[in-house]
Structures are given as structure tokens and as C-alpha cells.
Amino acid sequence: MDINGFKRALLSEGFCDLRYQNFSETTIKGSKRKIDTVAVNNKSGGNVRVLTGGGFGTFCFNDPKDINYAMQEAKLASDMIEGKRLIENIEINIDHVKVTPKMDPREVSIEQKKEMLSTYIEMIMDDEGIANLETEYYEQFTDTLIINNRGTEVLQEETNLWC
């Protein structure tokens, strides 16, 4: 994530802010004694808000290269609203929240994750009282950036993992 590129795109006039996320998700599903599905999804996207006119203009985008266009479109939308609204008192937040797991699942190969789930499936299905089993391994990682032209900079990592 190019934080400095996003900062350079912030307008100096009025108020503007940006939220951008990178999202990664891995899912491995199994039924009975076999793995049925392995899926890895990566997404990213952002939203900008600009207040230079009578109300907020907003614009969503996916490609970071579109940030300058997004800012200009949001500004145009704000300027089309009659009046002139100002935001005077804005609390500035600077925070970087980093995930620090004992073992980072991002460093474990998809093959190792499949093997782990297969091991659990076999252990459970070996019980003769169990006829069917639905299993799922799920992990999600999100990097979120929130900045504005008043000095706020929040960078936050999130991790969700379950099996």
C-alpha cells in the first residue's frame, strides 16, 4: 500500500479523507473424508470524501492509480451542492496497529493448511459414530488505511482465523 502516494493525493482545500483496504481471504472446505474447495481471494478498494461545497462528495475506487481521479470527482460532487459547509474542529489521530501473532498464518503454505485440515478430518471421521462431517478452515487479513488532510493517519491490520 503506497501510503505516501495516497497522502500526496489529498486536497489542501476544504476537508477530505480517504479509507483504503487490502483484503485477503483463504477458505479450505471439506466434507466426509475429502477436501472439496480451496479458494484464495484478494480484494482492495477505497473511498474518498471531500467537503469543499455545501455537502460531502464521495467516490469509490479499486485501483490505487485512480486516487487523483477519485479526489477530483468527489470534489466536483461536493462543489455541485449549494452552499459552503466547513468542518472546523477535527480530532487528529495517528495510530499504527500491527498484528503480531506467535505464528503468522500467512507464512504457512496452502498445502500445509490443507494437510492440517485433512488430519483433523481423519481424526474425527475415524470415530465410528460419525457418518458425515463438514469442515472449514478460514483466514482473513485486512490492512486498512484512514487518512485526512488535517493530519490523521491510521493504519490497522486485522486477522481472523478459525478452523
Q: The biggest beta sheet, please?
A: 6 strands, mixed
DSSP summary, beta strand count: 6
Strand/helix succession: HEEEHEHEE
**Helical content, roughly?**
10-25%
Radius of gyration: 22 Å
Give the structural class: alpha+beta
How are the secondary structure elements laid out?
Blueprint: H1 3-9, E1 15-31, E2 34-51, E3 57-61, H2 67-79, E4 94-97, H3 110-125, E5 134-148, E6 153-162
Parallel strand pairs: 4-6
Antiparallel strand pairs: 1-2, 1-5, 2-3, 5-6
Q: Nutshell version of this structure?
A:
The chain is α+β, with helices and mostly antiparallel strands.
What does this 3D model show about the protein?
Helices cover 22% and strands 42% of the residues. The protein contains three helices and six strands. β1 (15-31) and β2 form a beta hairpin. It has helices at residues 3-9, 67-79, 110-125; strands at residues 15-31, 34-51, 57-61, 94-97, 134-148, 153-162. By secondary structure, it is of the alpha+beta class.
Keywords:
alpha+beta, 163 residues, 6 strands, 3 helices
